[in-house]
Design a protein that fits this description.
By secondary structure, this protein is α/β, with parallel strands linked by helices. The chain has eleven helices and seven strands. The relative contact order is 0.17. Belongs to the aspartate/glutamate racemases family. Pfam families: Asp_Glu_race. It comes from Trichococcus collinsii. One of its GO terms (molecular function) is amino-acid racemase activity.
Length: about 230
């Protein structure tokens, strides 16, 4: 296989599957041969990223991801994507293990907000505690001049329940809680809400109402992936 890209997935598997479903919704050619070429490494037993960021005595997820990168080095894809926000805390450590470019979902998303939401001042960050602790979004947003609206303990507990209890543990999309969280961000003054967790992106993919102004990091990464993959098919 020539001119293909690599996906470092399994963080988690439902989120990775949703990325593929969304990709095929946006790119659906008339014949099999015109679909994209890619290699998916759905490494489901990569240790939890948030657990390690909050407690470095826990198993380090980056070791497992680097193993996967070394495998991709043998295959030589044109580029690599990681459809998980929190793993980008380790982006530099992972990128230095390969000469193959890895798309940085965090940078792409913050640049997207700057380009498409010129009037926005306050960005709510709907993400895991690991992403908050790492400040991977917060630092970049502040650099761009935005005020980041972070959840208080009560709101973060709701986010944790939605991501871990409903989606990761039960594969259940509980929209009343999802809308309640978005409403809480709105009430905190957020002009837009950044969906900075790919499990939350799964909720957005199935949300038929789209009541709130959101920026979905997974979809930003998806758009860039499709653009580059089309170039490989040209």
């Amino acid at each position: 296989m020539k001119k293909f890209f690599g996906i470092l997935g399994g963080m988690g598997t439902l989120a990775t599957t949703n990325f593929l479903v969304e990709m095929n919704k946006r790119h659906f050619p008339e014949n099999d041969q015109d679909y994209f070429n890619y290699v998916l490494m759905n490494h489901a037993d990569i240790p939890d990223r948030t657990e390690y960021i909050l407690d470095p005595t826990k198993p380090n997820p980056v070791d497992a991801v680097i193993e996967d990168v070394h495998m991709l080095n043998l295959l030589q894809p044109e580029f690599i994507i990681m459809p998980c926000n929190t793993i980008h805390y380790f982006f530099d450590d992972i990128q230095k293990e390969t000469d193959i470019p890895i798309l940085n979902m965090i940078d792409l998303t913050v640049d997207y907000i700057a380009e498409h939401y010129e009037g926005a001042e306050k960005v709510g960050l709907f993400a895991t505690e690991g992403t908050h602790q790492s400040r991977i979004y917060e630092n970049r947003l502040v650099e761009k001049g935005y005020q980041v609206v972070l959840p208080d303990r009560e709101l973060q507990d709701k986010i944790n329940k939605m991501i871990y209890y409903y989606i990761k543990e039960r594969s259940h999309l509980f929209f009343p809680l999802y809308y309640e969280i978005l409403e809480d961000f709105k009430n905190c003054g957020a002009d837009i809400v950044l969906l900075g967790c790919t499990e939350v992106s799964l909720m957005n993919s199935e949300d038929e109402e789209q009541r709130y102004p959101i920026v979905d990091a997974e979809k930003v990464l998806l758009d860039k992936t499709i653009a580059l993959a089309k170039e490989l098919k040209a």
